[in-house]
Amino acid sequence: MVSENVLGKPKKYQGFSIDVLEALANYLGFKYEIYVAPDHKYGSPQDDGSWNGLIGELVFKRADIGISALTITPDRENVVDFTTRYMDYSVGVLLRKAEKTVDMFACLAPFDLSLWACIAGTVLLVGLLVYLLNWLNPPRLQMGSMTSTTLYNSMWFVYGSFVQQG
Length: 166
Fold this sequence. Notes:
Its main location: membrane. The structure is a single chain. By secondary structure, this protein is mainly alpha-helical. Among the domains are: 63 residues, D-Maltodextrin-Binding Protein, domain 2 (3-Layer(aba) Sandwich); 51 residues. Helices cover 37% and strands 0% of the residues. Helix 4 crosses helix 5. The longest helix is centred in the C-terminal third of the chain and has 24 residues. It is rod-shaped and about 105 Å long.
């Protein structure tokens, strides 16, 4: 990107790519001059087979290297050589590290606590009603293979019916 131009001074560029270019110039001992492609484009093939933009500057040898956030496409790879990518932009998601504790009540997670309380209350109420109805009128209500009509057996009968277990 271009930094601010103050009082007619030449344009100064800054950014990660410029830092990499500066480090290469210091390490390899070369001097460089930065200019923008005349049409301000990255480069695409034209109808006559030529290229415009930054790729065109490289193809016609008006520039030795091109530095840009340029997408590497098969068409561009056929006419110029690319380095490997040195910077990769991708979407990242930051999450808190999961704790490695064992929760004994993880089985209760599918429902809210109030719903579990309603289920428990319903099992207790229906179990009590089954016990009372069986106590008041024993010969008419047969509860499977259950022979004793205690409150404990009535509760287990309702719970077993609720979770569909024997």
